[in-house]
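hey
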């Protein structure tokens, strides 16, 4: 397996953390827009979305088909690609749950930020394997300053 890297500008990381804090104690969610290159992806912009999960928004999020179409259209309009999705884990680790795995799609990057008592903490990124059996961790690199936040191994 090649090393997977996601370049994330500090401002985008700040916005994801702020979205997680703003929606606490519920999960936030949004789309990652950018460019995919050999071995690394770069997030250029974010598209924050509403969590449409009514029954358990504290530990689940839902992206609707309309959200996916909006994210794809927004990416096209900005001449970018839809690279993946982000969401928060209120009072839980920044690790994908079994529910996350069952509802994820291969190829996309999935950023998870842990929000502990309204305070955003660890941020990780993952890609679901093509066989959907497990995730591989993706190193998050600050695109502007080359600061690296290694994803857990």
């Amino acid at each position: 397996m090649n090393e997977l890297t996601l370049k994330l500008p500090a401002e985008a990381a700040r916005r994801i953390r702020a979205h997680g804090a703003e929606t606490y104690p519920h999960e936030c969610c949004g789309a990652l827009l950018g460019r995919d290159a050999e071995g690394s992806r770069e997030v250029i912009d974010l598209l924050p979305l509403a969590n449409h999960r009514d029954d358990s928004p504290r530990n689940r999020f839902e992206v609707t088909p309309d959200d996916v179409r909006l994210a794809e259209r927004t990416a096209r309009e900005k001449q970018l690609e839809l690279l993946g999705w982000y969401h928060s884990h209120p009072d839980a680790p920044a690790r994908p749950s079994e529910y996350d795995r069952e509802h994820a799609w291969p190829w996309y990057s999935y950023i998870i930020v842990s929000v502990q008592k309204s305070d955003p903490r660890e941020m990780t990124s993952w890609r679901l394997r093509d066989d959907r059996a497990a995730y591989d961790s993706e190193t998050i690199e600050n695109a502007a300053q080359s600061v690296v936040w290694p994803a857990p191994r």
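Residues 22 and 152 are 26 Å apart (CA to CA). The longest strand covers residues 40-49.
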